[in-house]
Amino acid sequence: MLIRAYVSRWSVVSFGNDMASPWSITQAAPRLLCEAMTSLGAEYHFDGDVAVHASAKIEAGATIKGPAIIGPRSFVSASALLRAGVFIDEDCIIGPAVELKTTFMFSGSKAAHLNFIGDSIIGSDVNLEAGSMVANYRNELSDKTIRIVLGDQVIDTGVEKFGALIGDGTRVGANAVIAPGAVLNRDARVPRLGLVDQHPLHMSELSSPKVP
């Protein structure tokens, strides 16, 4: 699975040549971001392991725990929380009460408000409406390894934390839930209050007849 098939700008970032799986990338996020910081230009301001472009706006009250890179013209609202390795590309919006954990978000994407996005790669021009969540942990299962039904194959990621790979141009409606281990094609549409769950157990439940 090539990330650039879903995220067009993957090939232009300094860590985008890595051919690893999306879940390997999120696992390595802190290291990849620290390495990327060494090649940032003078237009970035550093506060420890947080790098913010001079044209970005970070409102008072936002909490950013590095390593983190905030790109040109992006906006991070007061009460937002970014932690555990976050990359924000250019022209992104992180709204009030949004939490991003170990996430890469690409150009022009928006998390409106009251969102959680964990251990994920979000393409360009993606819009997550208010209250939509990208979960990253199978709290409900005894075996918490992330597995994904993709086409006619089941992918065993070997990790216990991974949210989603979301393709460019996707729209996620308000209060929708993307369950751990999802892969959304470019221009996908998730309705308000919708659920995307690509775990084999969930898929088999959908296809099995209900017995009273």
Q: Can you tell me about this structure?
A:
- The structure is a single chain.
- The chain starts with 21 loop residues before the first helix and ends in a 5-residue tail after the last helix.
- It has helices at residues 22-27, 29-37, 200-207, and strands spanning 44-47, 50-53, 57-58, 63-64, 68-70, 75-76, 81-88, 93-94, 99-105, 110-111, 116-122, 127-128, 133-134, 147-150, 153-156, 164-166, 171-172, 177-178, 182-184, 189-190, 195-196.
- The protein is mainly β and 212 residues long.
- 42% of the residues are buried.
- The model is unreliable at 206-212 (pLDDT under 50).
- The protein has three helices and 21 strands.
- Strand 14 (147-150) and strand 15 (153-156) form a beta hairpin.
Number of strands: 21
Shape: globular
Count every helix, treating DSSP H or I runs of 4 or more residues as helices.
3
Secondary structure class reads: mainly beta
Which percent range describes the beta-strand content? 25-35%
